[in-house]
Specification:
Layout (H helix, E strand, L loop, with lengths): L26 H12 L3 E2 H4 L5 H6 L2 E6 L3 E2 L9 E2 L10 H12 L3 E6 L10 H14 L4 E5 L7 H8 L5 E3 L9 H4 L6 H14 L4 E8 L5 H13 L4 E6 L16 H14 L3 E4 L8 H11 L39
Parallel strand pairs: 2-5, 3-4, 5-6, 6-7, 7-8, 8-9, 9-10
Antiparallel strand pairs: 1-2
Helix pairs in contact: 1-4, 4-5, 5-6, 6-8, 9-10
Length: 337
């Protein structure tokens, strides 16, 4: 059968108005970009084509991507290059990152990483060395590590935690049902939950964070189940954002979730007891509203995060990017985590 004429082919729905953002620019944005290029560093902000790159860089936060720009996994939502680095990485990277951050005077840095299944420790040692280098050069800097699952190896999770980041983050990414089709075949929903739970057990005084993408075909009840699973695993901070297709080769957007729905997800997450929730179309895992919450909490005399059930804990929010229509489906037993 001949393909339908061009005019009859179904076109993707246009992006709604709430997904429009300004092109990045400004003095601080330009300086940060030039400094990173000079030291041969990469950011997930650029590699993953984040829509918030201009806003976050201008506000003094950035997400540095460690271990090169080639990931050994091939998730269907991610624009980062997939391949096999064959064990190669830059041993100077921790010092280069520390120099760049010291020069730029950033307030908060997120260290993320490509998955490195070709390395025995999955890259955990490089992350830990980078945190140590940052602590030496920038004593007041707040550091978040957004890492892979290390194939569930707790020794590697502990290696990162023992370097004392202020926040340990690992993204669940999507609901359980969509994990096999949207994430790489080596990714497992329950492994991600186990990594998060292990992080909280190892360092209960630190914030643990995760993120969910929506708009990939999930049902509202499935999102609420994922939120409940994350909370049961000890996650303190959760972000929810709209999936945006980076190229035609990636998974299609099933639909654009409305601001009202994001607001409902936020309400449900707050009811579960998360310390902070950022829920909105343009919210990403490294989102400066969440970073501002961490900075506010850790700037107080006590550096111990308050109890997730403490009254008044949920006052900070991601302003007008959020909220619903979901029915609550109570969370199933997570005792195996």
């Amino acid at each position: 059968m001949a393909p339908p004429p061009e005019a009859e082919r179904q076109k993707p729905a246009p992006k709604p108005s709430w997904l429009r953002v300004r092109a990045p620019g400004g003095e601080r944005y330009t300086k940060l970009k030039e400094t990173l290029r000079k030291l041969d560093l990469y950011t997930v902000c650029e590699e993953a084509r984040c829509p918030n790159v201009g806003e976050c860089w201008a506000s003094g936060t950035a997400t540095i991507m460690l271990l090169g720009h080639t990931c050994t996994r091939g998730c269907r939502f991610c624009a980062v290059t997939t391949g096999n680095p064959r064990g190669a990485f830059d041993p100077r990277e921790p010092e280069h990152v520390a120099r760049a951050i010291a020069e730029l005077g950033l307030n908060y840095v997120v260290l993320t990483m490509v998955d490195r299944d070709d390395l025995l420790d999955g890259g955990a040692g490089q992350v830990a060395r980078t945190v140590a280098a940052l602590r030496e050069r920038c004593p007041g800097l707040l550091v978040e590590t957004l890492v892979g699952d290390f194939r569930g190896r707790l020794a590697d999770v502990h290696s990162v935690l023992d370097s004392a980041p202020d926040v340990f983050a690992h993204n669940i990414e999507v609901v359980r049902r969509l994990t096999p089709t949207i994430r790489d075949a080596r990714c497992r929903y329950d492994v991600s939950l186990a990594v998060l739970a292990a992080a909280k057990r190892r360092a209960p005084e630190r914030f643990v964070k995760s993120s969910i993408m929506v708009g990939l075909g999930e049902e509202p009840g499935e999102v609420l189940e994922t939120l409940a699973d994350l909370r049961a695993a000890g996650v303190d901070i959760v972000t929810l954002g709209q999936y945006l297709r980076p190229t035609p080769k990636h998974a299609e957007v099933a639909r654009y979730v409305t601001p009202a729905e994001f607001e409902e997800y936020e309400r449900e997450a707050r009811a579960l007891g998360f310390a902070f929730v950022a829920s909105g179309a343009l919210v990403r895992s490294s989102y400066h509203a969440a970073e501002g919450f961490v900075a506010a909490r850790l700037g107080e005399p006590s550096r111990t995060p308050p109890s997730p059930k403490e009254p008044g804990l949920l006052e900070l929010r991601a302003s007008d990017l959020i909220s619903p229509a979901a029915l609550v489906r109570r969370h199933r037993d997570s005792s195996g985590i």
